[in-house]
């Protein structure tokens, strides 16, 4: 069986996921993406939220998705 990638990541895991040190992660992305509190002192970050943040920073979200062409539209 394949390895399961967790969706929720600790600060250390989230920092590693985005390629930053933990202090750099907490000073930048960690402040922009609100963590989920799972206990008195435990904070975790949603991996999909990290992906969306990375996409927005790289401009991926600003690109339009290609429109699907319906061949029946040519008949109208």
Question: What does this 3D model show about the protein?
Answer:
This protein has helices at residues 11-18, 22-27, 29-32, 47-58; strands spanning 8-9, 36-37, 43-46. It is of the alpha+beta class and 76 residues long. The chain has a single domain, classed as Arc Repressor Mutant, subunit A (Orthogonal Bundle). It is elongated and about 60 Å long. The chain starts with 7 loop residues before the first strand and ends in an 18-residue tail after the last helix. This is Helix-turn-helix domain-containing protein. It comes from Acetobacter ascendens. Pfam families: HTH_17.
SSE map:
Layout: E1 8-9, H1 11-18, H2 22-27, H3 29-32, E2 36-37, E3 43-46, H4 47-58
Antiparallel strand pairs: 1-3, 2-3
